[in-house]
Amino acid sequence: MGRFYDMFYKREPVQDVVHVTLPPGFATPHGYGALMSIDFAACEQTKARSMASLPFSVMQAGRDGHKRLDNHPLAKILNGMANEEMTAAKLMDWTVLRRDTFGNAYWYVEWFKGKPVAIWPITASVMHDYDKHAPRGRRTRYYVSPGDDHVPAGWYYPDEVVNISTHMTKDGVRGISLARLAAEEIGLSIDLERFYRSMLHNGNHQLGHVEVPEGRMDEKDLKALRAAVDAKSGVAEAGRAPIFGYGAKWVTDQQTMKDASVIEQQKWVLHQVCRACNVPPWKVYDSEGATYNGGQQMRIDYVTDTITPDVRDLEMALQPVLDACYQRNTKAKFKLNGLMRGDDAARTQYYRELGYFGAITRADVRDLEDMEPVEGIDQPLFPLNYGTVNQDGTVNVFNADRPVGTADGTQEGATNVPNQE
Fold first, then answer.
1. Per-residue model confidence as pLDDT tens digits over 371-399
2. Which of 10, 176, 254, 383 has the fewest beta carbons under 10 Å from its own?
3. How far apart are CA 124 and CA 146, in angstroms?
């Protein structure tokens, strides 16, 4: 069952895409052929859908804290159309599959008048070069060859080509293909799927053979018997009893499908592919062992262990692009809150506690819940039974003797009271 691994993966590692000349019609798990495995395809689709659903923002640090730059060119690109042909979500779908299949995914950033205006996926081969004698910021270069429909061949710098690699890497630059690492399991998965297809096509849903009485049958009788067996093949004929002539009878073999443990093999292969892709089995609809009470924690674990590391890598890979925009103290940020939402009651209690502490505003809550903004709720709430302690020991508390003209949570009417200690 591991013939795909022995034939196409058990060889010296290469830097770029490997092109193998094969007979016409012979498909293998090599490259995008790994999608022949439904297990690998399910894992990749799960991660791609999660990554594509994340809102993107550019944050700028200042004296008053972080400010979100919604009008930043990179924010507009990654929250809308990445280029004239694909949305940012489709770009992210391509990125996840390309990275995990080949080890690296590359973006080409198109610039116009000093601003990024589009991001294109690079489907051509990309080579890395490092020149230690070049000026700082220009030492790393990427060579695209032979180019594709949207990216001309030539040399590019990190603010023009974004390198997104897997977490498995030997030099920190070139990622190792997850499809290559899971080649053995992907080959097994494809073999099992072909086994089922062959069983349904041939119609022998019970392992067995035909026995004929002693004596030699002529060629005409053998053909007639073969036709009777073949007539049982196919899904439409499942369960229909065949009729054999010439005294022949059907004998069931001792080893049955249950003895072959094919279902257990499928589960084992699925779990192996999930381990290689870092996707929990329950995300690909293998709910064995999952409980309702642990569902929220499982969702959080999926975000923290699978999505957050990928997001962090992508945020840092975009830093040269932000630096080239000449806006100081900016960084890329993907919002993960939507993936970590629990049930309504737990989420409401979480927001309530943060709101009472003044850590977030009601406007922040609406933003986290993807609701339309509402005016007048962008001020933090102030709990009336709390006070603040000054450096000289005095305490700022609410003065109940003076009525407050507003009820918006401000500290109007507060007074200094000496500390009793």
1. 777 888 888 876 767 677 778 877 777 65
2. 254
3. 6
